Amino acid sequence: MKFRKKVLLAKLETVYGTDATPTGAANAIQVSDLAISPMEGSTVNRDLVRPTLGNDLQIHVGTHVKLEFDVEMAGAGAAGTAPAYGPVLRMCGLAETINAGTSVEYDPVSGNEESGSLYFHIDGQKHALLGVRGGFSLKGDPGSIPKFHFMMTGLWVDPATVADPTPDFSAFQVPLAVTNDNTPTFSLHGISPNKIGFSFDQANQVVYRNVVGEESVQITDRAPAGQVTIEAPVLATKNFFTIAKANTTGALQLIHGVTAGHIVQFDAAQVQVLQPKYGDSDGIATLQMGLSVIPTSAGDDDFKITVK
């Protein structure tokens, strides 16, 4: 077995925990840094009383599977077309809305989260995960390829020896690096500072449950947060220290890509900046701040990802 020979397939399920049978031709996901934890769970010791020393047999309990992988943050190739990685975003508690010919939006939900089936192939061996749900983070520092990092949890299926599928990655677009030309918009609390770094974590609370009557993976909460580093504005332009002290919220927007079909936009209407700190970037003063992303009273509008 060659460790590098890996393929990942992902397809949304119609019925929770029922294999959606993804195929290489229709459901391949182009990823990097793909890693599997094939036997998560715990063991229970029998603690039998006996007249000699030694171990007891340990019983595996609640065995499930976890996967982590990165997907390049890029458009779908045409405005109003869902990106090929869209099914995985939907498994993270996001609802997909297609605006024909214009855009595809992903918004958080607080119930009835979709689930999916993932197939992890490694050189002729298949590990399937059913009832998969998870969460994501994203990062896009200057000079790098922006990526989604997915952390997925699924129900156990016995591994099997199966021929590796032939993946079709044609729906995935070549990404753009984060540069001044490729990332035309970054705004925070009404100003457009020079951005040094930005990261966001959906911070879903994902739990595997195995109780009498049900085995499932559930998303039970989320606490979206992030970090930003910008060139420090003079206080007369924007005083982030008093803004943080007053617990004031403001909007954040990031647009990456410049031509239709290759744009990904991130919006958050109510972002609280936390504990600004000075730093240094090439001799330029910076501010590093934590971010707390808060929904409005309407709910489920903490943030929005738009592919257009």
Question: Would you mind describing this structure in some detail?
Answer:
By secondary structure, the chain is mainly beta. The chain has one domain (6-42, 59-307). The chain is built from three helices and 18 strands. It has helices at residues 24-27, 86-90, 240-245; strands at residues 6-12, 32-45, 58-72, 94-99, 103-108, 116-122, 125-139, 147-156, 160-161, 185-188, 195-201, 204-211, 214-222, 225-231, 249-256, 264-281, 284-293, 304-307. It has a 16-stranded antiparallel beta sheet that branches. Strands 12-13 form a two-stranded antiparallel ribbon. A hairpin with a 2-residue loop joins strand 16 and strand 17 (284-293). The longest helix is centred in the last third of the chain and has 6 residues, at 240-245. The radius of gyration is 22 Å and the shape is globular. The protein starts with 5 loop residues before the first strand and ends with a strand. The mean pLDDT is 97.
Write the layout of secondary structure elements.
Elements: E1 6-12, H1 24-27, E2 32-45, E3 58-72, H2 86-90, E4 94-99, E5 103-108, E6 116-122, E7 125-139, E8 147-156, E9 160-161, E10 185-188, E11 195-201, E12 204-211, E13 214-222, E14 225-231, H3 240-245, E15 249-256, E16 264-281, E17 284-293, E18 304-307
Antiparallel strand pairs: 1-6, 2-3, 3-8, 4-5, 5-18, 6-7, 7-8, 7-9, 7-11, 10-15, 11-14, 12-13, 14-17, 15-16, 16-17, 16-18
